[in-house]
């Protein structure tokens, strides 16, 4: 069983919802972002998404755009992100770490080398925002060779038949994008999420994490009812910048444990 | 060489495809299906042809530029006069086609990105024609540089949305348009202005623009009784070039040359020559040649002409470059500017700064080709929009004197790289 499977099994055994936290690596610099990541893990984040900054983040709202910009200004690159993951892995041996980003930096690094180096650093999975299923075979081949998991994205616009195709060989968990929009803007209605997630269950037995637009414990509790886990990204960045990251993570943890 | 066409997933060889967020995949498939159906419907083609003729003013003339020919002392120069189209450039061929498709799909809101404002104006124009809403995303820096085009779009009823992210130019406007499309995916048709972006846009835009090459073929056969030896077109995203090149793919005797923007010079790193000087990458939904650094971060382009100021290029051009059916070269700001003045003074035609790049390349090649040779230059747009930029360029300022290559125009926005 890999770390993702172990984590969801543990959560199920404990009757709890998972908290998936996203932070952009290198925002505002590598050391500070590493500290933020450690803080979220120490306060109950179950799965960590490490964002690789990209110059043209076309699926992200203002918060993550700005975070990516700051990270690039600070000289963040893939080798530095992989080194950061290596340090986290040494101290958090059981936490699943997902590398989250846009394709071009990975493509440029070279798929084979990227998969080798990511696995060696201790990453468990990739989530590539602009790599839909149809274009993903080449990268997935290299990932399989290293035991890395490709996390599929499903949107509200994805028709059921397409979801079934995408999820046929999927592993790890499914990331359900709750809103048609960019990250960090607008929250979805809990009943819409429930309906979509229920429909998604017909295509997969994997755990489902719901994300986009979750900014508070209350929202997490509302949408979390439908899923196995909730993803929080932009709100963590905003909280870290306002110096109340610990409060937000505690609030989210408390809310999700009460679902 | 056989005419190139993409596979079922929009790949031109290893290029092209669809690299977008999952949210957009279904709508791209809808656009693709609607386009496939439309192109097989004779009534769609007939309506497109009628509007190209009655509204755009096609066919555009193929004009023998005798004074240029005489002055350069070599090949006979013909200019394909896309500058005479309604709205002043080739852009309207494409926006008309896409608006007809949007109408067929029952969408009543058009969205576009724009750099110089030409594609924005062409989209706003057809939106007015069809009574559709129109939203245009434009970088704040470009809004400052292209005030008259902003006003034109507003007069045509469009809303111009300023984009303040990144470099505040075309690249960022396109990123923002993709974000907005994700949000308004149900109601809105995204009118992409060039042969780039995710499938089916590269092939669809080429098809709407191939009228340029189809007309050129007929016109040159009438005038010369044979095909030209060389066709030149400027390449930013590459839509005017794809439009004029594509019908000549199988005519091996016709050399096809795409002219990219060399900016301050390729060695300065401040240019927009994605094929000549870029590497393969993925940007805005397609795999193609891209200006990027060693880490895969997209670099800022620079060109004197806002319309060529883009760090990527259409995927079919990438394939043509690899197959060596089309060769690509770069012309600097300075050379383009000289060609702009020469054409204006010799023929009384003020060309767009974009098209001036192709004219500059013609000047380099014509003398060596002999008087029996024939060159066609795609004059993709007129230069009225550039007059303000020319005024600014010719005003001596300490800033422009310091800039490499001697011109400080659109370099300001990009110089911070």
- Helix-residue proportion of chain B: 40-55%
| Radius of gyration from the alpha-carbon trace of chain A, in angstroms | 17 Å
CATH superfamily of chain A: Aldolase class I
Structural class of chain A: alpha/beta
Strand fraction of chain B equals 15-25%
Query: Strand-and-helix sequence of chain A, N→C?
Result: HEHEHHEHHEHEEHEHEHEHH
Give the tally of β-strands of chain B. Answer: 14
Gross morphology of chain A: globular
CATH class of chain A: Alpha Beta
CATH topology of chain A: the name is TIM Barrel
Please state the structural category of chain B: alpha/beta
Q: pLDDT average of chain A, as an integer?
A: 96
As for the number of domains of chain A, it is 1
Which pair has the most extensive contact?
A-B, 42 and 36 residues
Write the layout of secondary structure elements.
The complex is a heterodimer of chains A (259) and B (417).
Chain A: H1 3-14, E1 18-24, H2 30-42, E2 47-51, H3 62-73, H4 78-91, E3 97-101, H5 103-109, H6 111-121, E4 125-128, H7 137-145, E5 149-150, E6 153-154, H8 160-167, E7 174-177, H9 190-201, E8 208-211, H10 217-224, E9 229-232, H11 234-241, H12 245-257
Parallel strand pairs in A: 1-2, 1-9, 2-3, 3-4, 4-5, 6-7, 7-8, 8-9
Chain B: E1 11-12, E2 15-19, H1 25-39, H2 42-56, E3 62-64, H3 66-72, E4 76-81, H4 91-104, E5 109-114, H5 118-130, E6 133-139, H6 140-145, H7 147-155, E7 159-163, H8 170-183, E8 188-190, H9 201-209, H10 211-224, E9 230-235, H11 239-245, E10 255-263, H12 274-277, E11 279-283, E12 285-290, H13 315-323, E13 326-332, H14 333-347, H15 353-365, E14 374-379, H16 387-394, H17 398-402, H18 411-414
Parallel strand pairs in B: 4-14, 5-6, 5-8, 6-7, 9-10, 9-14, 10-13
Antiparallel strand pairs in B: 1-2, 2-12, 3-4, 11-12
Helix pairs in contact in B: 2-4, 4-5, 4-9, 5-7, 9-11, 10-11, 14-15
Protein traits:
heterodimer, A: about 260 residues, alpha/beta, TIM Barrel, globular, B: alpha/beta, four-stranded antiparallel sheet, about 20% strand
């Amino acid at each position: 069983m890999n770390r993702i499977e172990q984590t969801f099994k543990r959560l199920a055994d404990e009757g709890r919802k998972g908290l998936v936290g996203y932070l952009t690596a290198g925002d505002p610099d590598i050391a500070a972002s590493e500290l933020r990541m450690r803080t979220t893990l120490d306060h109950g984040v179950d799965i960590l998404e490490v964002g690789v900054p990209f110059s043209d983040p076309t699926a992200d709202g203002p918060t993550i755009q700005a975070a990516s910009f700051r990270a690039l200004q600070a000289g963040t690159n893939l080798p530095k992100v992989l080194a950061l993951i290596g340090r986290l892995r040494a101290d958090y041996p059981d936490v699943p770490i997902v590398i989250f980003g846009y394709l071009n930096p990975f493509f440029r690094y070279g798929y084979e080398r990227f998969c080798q180096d990511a696995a060696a650093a201790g990453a468990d999975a990739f989530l590539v925002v602009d790599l839909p299923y149809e274009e993903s075979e080449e990268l997935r081949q290299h990932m399989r060779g290293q035991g890395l998991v490709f996390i599929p994205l499903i949107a509200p616009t994805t028709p059921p038949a397409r979801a079934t195709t995408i999820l046929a060989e999927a592993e790890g968990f499914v990331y359900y994008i709750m809103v048609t929009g960019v990250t960090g803007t607008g929250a979805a209605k809990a009943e819409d999420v429930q309906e979509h997630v229920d429909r998604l269950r017909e295509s997969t037995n994997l755990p489902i994490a719901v994300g986009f637009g979750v900014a508070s414990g209350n929202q997490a509790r509302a949408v979390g009812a439908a899923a196995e886990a909730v993803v929080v990204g932009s709100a963590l960045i905003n909280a870290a910048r306002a110096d109340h990251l610990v409060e937000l993570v505690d609030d989210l943890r408390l809310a999700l444990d009460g679902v | 060489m056989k005419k190139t066409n993409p596979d079922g997933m929009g790949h031109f060889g290893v290029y092209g495809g669809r690299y977008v967020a999952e949210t957009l995949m279904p709508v791209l498939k809808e656009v693709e299906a609607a386009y496939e159906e439309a192109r097989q419907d004779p009534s769609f083609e007939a309506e497109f042809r009628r509007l190209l003729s009655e509204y755009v003013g096609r066919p555009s003339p193929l004009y023998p530029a005798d004074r240029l020919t005489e002055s350069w002392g070599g090949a006979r120069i013909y200019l394909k006069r896309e500058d005479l189209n309604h709205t002043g450039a080739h852009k309207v061929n494409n926006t008309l086609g896409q608006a007809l498709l949007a109408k067929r799909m029952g969408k009543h809101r058009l969205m576009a990105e724009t750099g110089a404002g030409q594609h924005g104006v062409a989209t706003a124009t057809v939106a007015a024609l069809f009574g559709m809403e129109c939203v245009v995303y434009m970088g704040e820096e470009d809004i400052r540089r292209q005030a008259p085009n902003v006003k034109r779009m507003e007069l045509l009823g469009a809303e111009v949305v300023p984009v303040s992210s990144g470099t505040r130019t075309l690249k960022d406007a396109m990123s923002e348009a993709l974000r907005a499309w994700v949000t308004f995916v149900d109601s809105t048709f995204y009118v992409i202005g060039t042969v780039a972006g995710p499938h089916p846009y590269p092939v669809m835009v080429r098809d709407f623009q191939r009228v340029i090459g189809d007309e050129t073929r007929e016109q040159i056969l009438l005038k010369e009784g044979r095909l030209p030896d060389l066709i030149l077109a400027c390449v930013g995203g590459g839509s005017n070039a794809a439009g004029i090149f594509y019908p000549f793919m199988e005519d091996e005797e016709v050399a096809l040359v795409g002219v990219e923007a060399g900016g301050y010079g390729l060695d300065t790193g401040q240019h927009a020559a994605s094929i000549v000087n870029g590497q393969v990458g993925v940007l805005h939904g397609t795999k193609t040649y891209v200006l990027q650094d060693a880490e895969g971060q997209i670099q800022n382009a620079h060109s004197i002409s806002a319309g060529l100021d883009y760090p990527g290029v259409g995927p079919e051009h990438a394939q043509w470059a690899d197959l060596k059916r089309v060769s690509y070269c770069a012309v600097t700001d300075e050379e383009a500017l000289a060609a702009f003045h020469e054409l204006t003074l010799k023929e009384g035609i003020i060309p767009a700064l974009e098209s001036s790049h192709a004219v500059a390349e013609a000047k380099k090649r014509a003398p060596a080709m002999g008087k029996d040779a024939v060159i066609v230059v795609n004059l993709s747009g007129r230069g009225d929009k550039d007059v303000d930029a020319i005024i600014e360029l010719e005003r001596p300022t300490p800033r422009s004197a310091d800039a490499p290559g001697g011109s400080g125009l659109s370099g300001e926005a990009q110089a911070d790289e």
